[in-house]
Amino acid sequence: MRSSWCFYNMFEQLAKNKSSLCVLELNWYFGSDNTGNLMSLENLDALIARAKSMENIFLITADGSVNCSINPGEQEGIVASLHFCEVVAAINILQTGGNFLLKIFTIFEHQSICLIYLLSCIFKKIHFYKPVTSKEGNSEIYVICLNYKGIDFILPYLPILREQYGKSNSIAMFKKNDLPKSFIEQIINCAQMFKNYQCEVIESNIAAYHPNNLNSSLSIEDKKIAKLVSDKFITNFPLQRLHNDLHIVGNIRLKRMKNNHWVVEAPTESYNEIQKMQILEPMERLMLHVKHFKSLEPAIKTFYFKPTNVSLDVCINIGKPYSRTKSSRFCSVQVSEIFNLIFQTIDLESGKHLSLPCDESMSLYETRLEQSNMYKILRFHYTDVYDSNTTMIRFKEILTNLQIDDNLFILGFLLLTQFHIGLIYILAHTFESVEFNINEELGCILHFKSFKNRALVLKTFQEIFETQQQTASSKEKVILSVISIMELYSSELYPIIGKLNNWIAKYCINQIASIYKNSQK
After folding, report:
1. What residues pair up with 438 in beta bridges, in sequence order?
2. C-alpha angle 193/194/195, rounded to 5°?
3. Which of 428, 408, 445 shows the shortest CA–CA distance to 302?
4. Tens digit of each residue's pLDDT (9 = 90 or more) over 285-323
5. Given Cys at both, which of 65, 243, 358, 447 links 435, Cβ 3.0 to 4.6 Å?
6. Whole-angstrom Cα distance, residue 249 to residue 242?
7. Cβ distance 35 to 1 under 8 Å?
8. CA distance 326 to 211
9. Given strand 99-104, what is the order of strands in its sheet?
């Protein structure tokens, strides 16, 4: 899991002059292995080392969580280990007198109670708060910890905390008798208050959901009240458009990072439906998606990309190896889940030598290409596991043999990872243009037209090859990316990839469905 962390450098000028503008420096960091997994002790140490190189940190926010949709009733227990790691990380990094904001859920279990007691010991004041922007019906609340007593205060106990770091431990941190009676009473009152509030909202939502309910008039009154409240707020606190110079990120970049235009309209599953899906085999679950994802095919069959210049923002990142992508910023969440189901299905059917596209279809396509001598071809499979070293070796071989004005065809190449998209993006800069063709038999065909021997771009590839050779002998490190994610977001290639992944998902579903139906005859 990735834990959402923000570090802010707070300047003394802000305290002296509240009216002055304080520029906040936002620092993204994903640990020594680039996974963003805060529950790794190695990443914790790397995070502490990075924090020491910065200005004094007086505010830390921890908004991490874990997907609990399969078992929402155990949400508090599932996220307990992550919350523990967030707290330990914060107390190692925070400056004396600093503040800490922690998102939690219900506070019924001993893990949460003990963690809150730990926080009450090392901070001078703690508040529990649910902001108006938090959905009323959920259980999330925020623990506001003020005025940190400092690392020296907790230093004798850090070895014990480190020993339990990242572990899913059901043992309580403190004995029940160690917790003051007054503290327990406050925790019970706090838990009771938020529980009652949540239940009232849920019951109100249920009553408003049924139009023929005797209490249906309440929903109309609620809307009237909501309108009055919003009008009153706008009157009392005049809202103004924030000047572009004051944007931390900016609307232009944010809009490019959104992928709403790729989201597939599929019915939302209820908790009971999710539970029923869990007992099905991957093939059965995949077949259920066939009828929901009929709209995956793009309106056009061919997409074009032509690089506008040869300058590249090369950003070679090394990190922990992985075999399959669990999520991707280059497709919607639904399509990412479809790909995971496809890979599970392929694994189960591996005895049938199921691969997409199949070797026969690729051979037939290559036969048709033989009419022209000025081409090269690279074959992959959509079911291949992620292997950056093998991929780089094959790309190096093909680049070595390319001649001026040659065409290159790449088949069965997954477009889910930043590494793969980065390679395609750089490779495109060595050709006149790229054509992405949708094909019923092969999925997506990448056609690179007219090779140009651009020394600057080829030098970039050489840097990547050399990095790949350095990591090839290590099982602990692989190349994760080769181009800045912001450059990919800003390019014309970004929306094209999203549409192509929709098609590739549909292609894989149709191919597997056809094989599945034939096996049932």
Report:
1. 444
2. 90
3. 445
4. 777 766 666 666 677 889 999 988 767 878 898 998 887
5. 447
6. 12
7. no
8. 41
9. 5-9, 57-62, 99-104, 141-148, 123-129
